[in-house]
Design goal:
Helices cover 28% and strands 19% of the residues. It is of the alpha/beta class. Helix 2 runs parallel beside helix 3 (56-70).
Length: 188
């Protein structure tokens, strides 16, 4: 099963949150705007993580325009002063820069404490990782599907899988998984 087919099935069951999320990475998504244009319309969210790159503000504004046109939900990690209106925030480990609370908040999480912080910070969706071995964090010990499911289940928060998730791995996750975050698996 492809991630897109899985995402469509999840969206049909739960029409609220996007089930597929592209995590941007300056090294692995060098042509970010082309990657955004290739995402399935209305099925994806985007976690913008181009922190510290030259021209970040302009790139974020271009990304926001493409996301609006393609009905993709966009959240931005990192500093908050350059985030345009209508773009949500992505916290790291449930913590982030102070500032006005946006309408939509996501968070990364690597353990239960991060998930609790994310819930308290108002996140609507947390990405618990790494569930499988991943190129983003070589050598990191993955949670595996059973530990991931146990940690994700007891939070009172929608939790998405992140880290090494592709079409074959998605079948190993619980049916109630709220979404999947990926880089390579969602790139053309």
């Amino acid at each position: 099963m492809s991630l897109v087919a899985w995402g469509r099935a999840v969206k049909a069951r739960r029409p609220g949150l996007p089930p597929l999320w592209l995590f941007t990475d300056p090294a692995r998504t060098p042509d970010l705007l082309a990657a955004l244009r290739a995402l399935p319309r209305g099925l994806c969210g985007v976690v913008f993580r181009h922190d510290g790159v030259p021209g970040r503000t302009a790139l974020l504004r271009q990304a926001a325009r493409i996301c609006r046109e393609r009905r993709l939900l966009l959240v931005a990690a990192g500093r908050s002063r350059d985030v345009p209106a209508g773009v949500g925030r992505h916290l790291r480990g449930g913590a982030g820069p102070a500032g006005p609370r946006p309408s939509f908040v996501t968070s990364s999480a690597h353990n239960r404490a991060d998930l609790v912080r994310a819930r308290r910070a108002g996140a609507r969706l947390a990405f618990l990782s790494p569930v499988f071995p991943t190129a983003s964090h070589p050598g990191a010990r993955p949670l595996g599907p059973a530990r991931w499911g146990k940690a994700a289940r007891c939070t009172g928060l929608c939790v998405a899988a992140l880290g090494g998730v592709g079409g074959s791995e998605i079948r190993r996750l619980p049916r109630w998984t709220a979404g999947v975050g990926a880089i390579g698996a969602l790139l053309p």
